[in-house]
Amino acid sequence: MSVAKDLTELGKLIARQHGWPAAKAFKAYEMNDRDRAVLTTSAVDLLTIFLDVPAACAAMSAAFAVQLERVLRGPIQVVAGTLTVEGEAVFGDRSPRGGAASCSTEAYDCNGHVWVMVGPYVADISIFRIAYSPHGPPKLARHINLVFGPNQGLYVEHWRRTRRRGLGYEPHYVLSAAEVTALMGGAYQTIEAHRTSSAAA
User: Fold this and answer.
1) What is the 3-state secondary structure (H, E, C) of the chain?
2) pLDDT digits 0-9 by tens, 85-115
């Protein structure tokens, strides 16, 4: 699917879940330097909190979106779909299975990949964490290390430019506010459990 078709499809998915005003705001948004700085600061804070939580792209993205809504005026959506590297799917199988059925608040993850959209900009807080993990897909790990190098925290890029980096974000479902809240709540329960067990050890 082309980027233009992806953006059109995502606009429809946003409208279906949140209404046409939200879809129009998504298309019209332009990121400025202040917004980019806010994204970076928020991501650093969350990556520290989620240090000990493995395989949590859905939870991290949900928490990131909630935090951004407090500090950023831009239109923010949490999207589930397929992540590709050089055209090959590394998370997801390109078949839409959206909704609560694919995003488990108990497993804190979704079938496929989950990321945040700030207007037409991808803001992926988990891609580098996954790639640097020993459990990440080897193809993703090789690509991230080759293209971006080590020690990266947040990937922010206009959607049309992601493919220049060899990455593809194919949307299947836009999470509702209730789903985002449930995922974030479950994530923080896991974080507190990790802290409690670490303190007791």
Assistant:
1) CCHHHHHHHHHHHHHHHHCHHHHHHHHHCCCCHHHHHHHHHHHHHHHHHCCCCCCCHHHHHHHHHHHHHHHCCCCEEEEEEEEEECCEEEECCCCCCCCCCCEECCCCEECCEEEEEECCEEEECCHHHHHHCCCCCHHHHHHHHHHCCCCCCCEEEEHHHHHHHCEEEEEEEECCHHHHHHHHHHHHHHHHHHHHHHHHC
2) 999 999 887 665 544 444 544 443 456 899 9
